[in-house]
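Title: Request for sanity check on Adenine DNA glycosylase prediction

Description:
We are preparing a figure and want to confirm that the structure record we downloaded matches what your pipeline produces today. Could someone re-run it with the sequence below and paste the raw C-alpha cells into this thread? We only need the C-alpha cell string, no images.
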Amino acid sequence: MRLSLSADEAPHLPNFAVSELRSSLLTWYAQLGRDLPWRRTRDPYAIWISEIMLQQTQVKTVIPYFERWMTLFPTVDALAKADLQAVLKAWEGLGYYARARNLHRAAQTIVEQHHGLFPQELDAVLALPGIGRTTAGGILSAAFNQPLAILDGNVKRVLARLMALDVPPNRALSALWHWSEAMLDPARSHEFNQAFMDLGATICTPKKPACLLCPWQRHCRAYNLGTQSELPMSEPRAPLLHKIIGVAVIWNDRNQILIDRRKPEGLLGGLWEFPGGKVEPGETIEACIKREIQEELGIEIEVGDRLTVVDHTYSHFRVTLNVHHCQHLSGDPQPIECDEIRWVMARELDQYPFPKANIHIIEALQKSAV
Ligand code: SF4
C-alpha cells in the first residue's frame, strides 16, 4: 500500500471529463435528488443545523430531530437564548453531544459578534465552534451559492472510487480536496454539492455501489478496473477498548432516584446519568458500585438486584453497563465528581437529557415498574 498522496501527486482530471462529470451529475440530481426538509430553504441557520446533525448521523434519523429542533429553536436568536439543558434535551439520542454544545455557543457568538445574522465570510464561519472546512463549504454553498467545495464521508468515498485512490482517504486529504474543488461547478455550487452527497448516499454506497445506475460510470476508474467493492481502502483498525462499568439506580425512602449531571467538558458533558464507574481488575460489580458511589457521591448504599445490562459502542471504545437497584443507607450525597445531583421521581426522568445508554436503563426501569 502506498503511504500517502499529496495534491501535487494527484492524477489530473482532464477538462472534458470535468465538464461531463458536472453536467451528468446535475442532470441526474434534477431527476433523482432527494427532497429533504433543509433543501426547501435557503436559510443559513436551518442549513447549518442540518449540516451539524448530519455529521456522523444518517438522514432518516436526522429528519425528525431537525423538524423538532426548528420548532423549538426557529432562529439563531432563539437558540442563543435557550437553556443548555433544553438544547441537550432536544439533541438526546443523536450522540456526539459536543455538536449540540458547540451549536449553542456558536449561536451566542453569532448574536454577539454578527448581530444575529449567520456570517457569509468563510473565515468568520470557520471561527465558529464546531464548524470545519467541509461544513462551512456545505452551508455557504447551499445558502449563498458560494463556490466552495465539500469533503464529507460520502464525497470522500465517491472520489476514492472515481479516481481509484490507492491509499486510505485520510492519507490523501489534500488530493481529495483538490479533486472536489476541481470538479465543483462554480456557477451551481448550491446544487452540485448536494448532488455529490446524494450520489454517495444513494448510488455509490459503502457496500454494493449501484454502478449500473451511476451517472459517472463511464469515467469511474474503480468501475473500469472492477475494484469498486475494494475501495476506499481502509486503515487497519485496532480492536476497541472494552470497559466494564457498574451503575447504580439508587432509591431513597421517598421512592426517589439519584441522578447526576456530568461536568460540561468532555464526553457526554452536561448530560445527566445514573452514577457509577469502571470495574477494577478482580473487583465484583457489587463492590465496584459501592466503591464508586462512596468516592463520587460520599454516601453508603446497599447494592441489590440487577436491573439490566446495557452494551453500547462509542467511536473509540465500547462499554457494558451492569446496572443494579441500590438502596440509600446514609450520608448526604455530594457532587464530588460531577456538577450537580438530584433526587427525582421515576416519572420525572424524561425531563432530563440522558445519553443513549442511560435511556436504555430508563426503559428497563419503566418495564420493571409495570
Ligand atoms: S461507477 Fe460505481 S464506484 Fe464509480 S462512482 Fe459510480 S457508483 Fe461509485
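Thanks, this matches our download. The mean pLDDT is 94.
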